[in-house]
Amino acid sequence: MTIANELPVIDHNHNARMDATSPGLTTELFTMLAEELTDMQPIINECFANQNTSELGHHLHKLQGGCVYCGLPRLKIAAADLEKASKQGGHLDPTLLATFNQEVDAVFTEFKAKGIIKS
Question: The whole model's pTM is what?
Fold first, then answer.
C-alpha cells in the first residue's frame, strides 16, 4: 500500500465522533501516543538499521493499533507497509523507513499545532 497524500494526517471526523461520546478523549489519546511515539521512533529506526525484523514488526504492529484509535491514517499505512516488508524477509527498503519517519514528523507537527505537545 502507498501513502495517499489526499488522506489527512489526522482524521478529524473520526476524532469528532470520539469526542462526541467522550469529551476530551482525543486529546488524552494524542498525548499518550505522542509520549509512546517519542520513545518508539528511535527503537524502530534502530531495529531497521540492525535488520532486526522480528522486533521491528512487533513495534510497528503495536503502533498501528494506536494509529487506529487516534485516527492517524497516513502513519498507520506507513507503519503497515514497513511491518509487511519486515515479515517478508530480505533486505528492507530504506524508502519505507523514510516514509515512516516523514509521517511521524507530520503527526508531531499536527500535535504541536494543536498544543498537544510542546516544541
Answer: 0.92
